[in-house]
Amino acid sequence: MNKTKIPVNEPYLGQREKELVNECLESGWISSAGKYIEKFENQFAEYCECAEGVTTTSGTTAIHLALKSLGVGPGDEVLVPAFTMVGSVYPIVQCGASPVFVDSEPDTGNMDIQDLESKITASTKVILIVHIYGHPADMDPICDLARSRNLKILEDAAEAHGALYKGRKAGSLGDVGCFSFYANKIITTGEGGMIVSNDKDLIKKARQLKDLAHGKIRFTHELPEAFNYRMTNIQAAIGLGQLERIEETVKKKIANAEQYSNLLKGVSCLKLPVCRPWARNVYWMYGVQLLDNDRFARDELMTALKNEGVDTRSFFYPLNTQKAFQGYGKQDCPKAEILGKQGFYLPSGQTLKPNQIQRVAEILVELLQA
Fold first, then answer.
1. Which residues pair with 369 in a beta bridge?
2. Whole-angstrom distance, CA of residue 229 vs CA of residue 194
3. In angstroms, rounded to a whole number, what is the distance separating the alpha carbons of residues 296 and 312?
4. Alpha helices per DSSP H over the chain
5. Euclidean distance between CA atoms 263 and 37, whole angstroms
6. What is the pLDDT of residue 315?
7. What's the pLDDT at 40?
8. What pTM value is reported for the model?
9. Domains of the chain and CATH, by start
10. 49: exposed, middle or buried (C-beta count within 10 Å: 0-12, 13-18, 19+)?
11. Which terminus of the chain, N or C, has fewer Cβ atoms within 10 Å?
């Protein structure tokens, strides 16, 4: 058997990105000033159906910038999924606030709304939603709950560029949306992030905070705390090239997921990803859960796949269980913990070819049904 490695993800950078980067290099504007920054902010915000965007150095700094712009600070609580990447949570701690972990829906992995409601206290200030693995959270009941309790909503849409909730773009549904452009995201600038919002005051505050709070006179500063979260003009040029074909990329991700689902639908010990009727799941990663079976534990199966040249990754380890956050008290999220134990994702990059997906599925089926 040909065991040429099939990676879990590969970024795709095409001729258009090279053209824009070369234009940027020739202009001499390679740092945090230049026309591509403003173009990328405006065009990405428009794609997300928001008024304005602010570029940052990463998705994590986008969340930090958004939380600070919402006024989150010591004594505040932020509700956040237990089942997410740690970049969603460290910014809460960096604001001096406390993360309160919310359990998951077993099928989408998104926030369980009943558990969310039960954990609101007088100290809660923000609900930080994560559209996990590209499937949007059920936003209407979350938004209704937030309005009734006078809470702000921050959407972590790092994995959900182009995802739709009832026809509306992820990132545009709350008070502020945050995106990552890391190399494995649906569009990439290598590293980088952005916040988008229709709240002009929030955007103004974010712009000030991200650039060392410069005043009207150069080298004067107006705030006691600010950050250097500036994206480079080169990164923005790459982002513009990526953005031009984002719908093509999303269609490719969906087609890959549909092929996987057709090939794996008969494997009883695999729980496949879902797409709710009101959603466009963009399948940032094609994640499956390995249910109880007589052949493999999850990590054993991942090792067997690796031996056959198939790269995989485990699901996120729920953050309520991790040493870093035990100082915030015991927080049980049993459904998130099951996801963390059972889940892993298969090769999911946009450069995957149909014959590679076929091969991955055949190997997986053979291992599980031998």
1. none
2. 10
3. 15
4. 15-27, 35-47, 59-69, 90-94, 113-118, 139-149, 200-210, 233-243, 246-264, 298-307, 334-342, 354-369
5. 42
6. 98
7. 98
8. 0.97
9. 15-102+109-243 (3.40.640.10), 246-369 (3.90.1150.10)
10. middle
11. C
Which pLDDT score, from 0 to 100, does residue 10 have? 93
Q: Mapping DSSP to helix (H, G, I), strand (E, B) and coil, where does residue 263 land? A: helix
| Segments in the chain below pLDDT 50 | 1
Structure tokens belonging to residue 353 = 């070819």
Q: Which two tokens stand for residue 114?
A: 């009943």
Distance from first CA to last CA of the chain, Å, rounded?
16
d(CA 316, CA 265): 24
Task: Report the C-alpha gap between 173 and 129 in whole angstroms.
Answer: 10
Query: For 122-199, where are the E strands, in sequence order?
Result: 124-130, 152-156, 164-165, 168-169, 176-180, 193-197
The token duo for 25 is: 């290099």
Averaged pLDDT of the chain: 96
Tell which residue, 51, 34, 32, has the closest CA to residue 192. Answer: 32
Please tell me the predicted confidence (pLDDT) of residue 1. 45
